[in-house]
Amino acid sequence: MLRESTEDAVVVPGIAAPSTIACLRSLGKRGVRTIVVSEDSETPAFASKYCDETVRTTDPNEDMDQYGRLLLDLASRESVQTIIPVREPDIYHLANRKAEFAEHVGTPWPDFERLERVQDRKRLFEIAESAGVGVPETRLLSEWDRWDEQTIVKSRYNIVVADNEAHYPGVEYIEPNSTPDTAALIEEMGHEPIAQEYMSDSAEYGFFALFDNGSPVATFQHRQIRAYKYSGGPSAFREAVHIPELKRAGLRLLDALDWHGLAMVEFKRDDGEFKLMEINPRFWSSLPFSVTAGVDFPYHFYQLAGGESVDAADGYDVGAAGHLVRGEVSYLASVLFHDSSLAERPSPLSALNTVGSSLFHHPRFDYLDLDDPKPFVQDIRRTIKNTVTGRP
Known about the structure:
By secondary structure, this protein is α+β, with helices and mostly antiparallel strands. The protein has three domains: 9-115, Rossmann fold (3-Layer(aba) Sandwich); 137-197; 203-389, ATP-grasp fold, B domain (D-amino Acid Aminotransferase, Chain A, domain 1). 34% of the residues lie in helices and 24% in strands. It has helices at residues 19-28, 64-75, 88-96, 98-102, 112-119, 121-130, 182-189, 244-256, 287-292, 297-305, 325-337, 348-361, 374-389; strands at 9-13, 33-38, 53-56, 80-83, 138-140, 151-154, 160-162, 165-167, 171-174, 194-197, 203-212, 215-229, 232-240, 261-270, 273-280, 321-323. The two termini are 38 Å apart.
């Protein structure tokens, strides 16, 4: 049921991930005006009936300063109550200039010092280990000596900002008994990365939370069932779970960080122990599923920004499962065309049967909503176009 319209407005960056759409639908249904900011004229968010205003901007990855200035200009509008971070450049600017934003809007996000602690994976794992949270074996690349095992080499930082541009160094999978060119990897990533043990048979879990100055006000958990590729990646199909050990690990870590704001804490379950993978201090791609399962994080973020008491539900729909259709298509394509040494490839027929069965039994989708169908149509159109043109 729709509330009467308010004069409040919220700024939401428009990206390809469904998190933007979840924010628009959550707030728009409550009468909160939404201002979508994007460098992409074809973002599905512009097509939503809950998008009240569109603002074009430069790509924040190419001109971080100009993007930050635009966010601050929007924050200075009298009607704007807050800005919602949905990707790394958003939270980078909001945290880095938090004092300036706080003069105009509510700021339920970490300061830059806290942000640096979670975006530096080496420091993060040290804090986690000190807090009694499980971590995979992790060292700087120059210190790693377990090349007889399968190893992951990845950026030490979630985001690397240099010369006003953002970079996201990739991940290298090193086969057992293969020693990589350390100097080449350091040059490629622009800094010394970390090396980490690879847990091939571990199930992936997410612990999601909104914190108010060290205290949790809303939490949620899910188990990833299927990813964009059969070898792993972002979530395409997931199930809501409630596991006390997972909650304890997530809360213990965020408590040690004295956290404030959003956190998506990724874990792998290895021999029964939850081991930390990373923290994303922003809204996550599968946010629509969290909302439909019963935890309305965008609205709670808005409440926290406005100084209201957060009325989060005590529970959520444990056992509910949901899909990103684009992710399911990507999964099936990986089964047909992608070779990987990281996982055994299922047969195309079994993969198709598994996806079809789950779509039938769990018809809950990130983009598809009959109340607001245009973003789904736009997302499918973009996916087809990018597939044809070879764009990512």
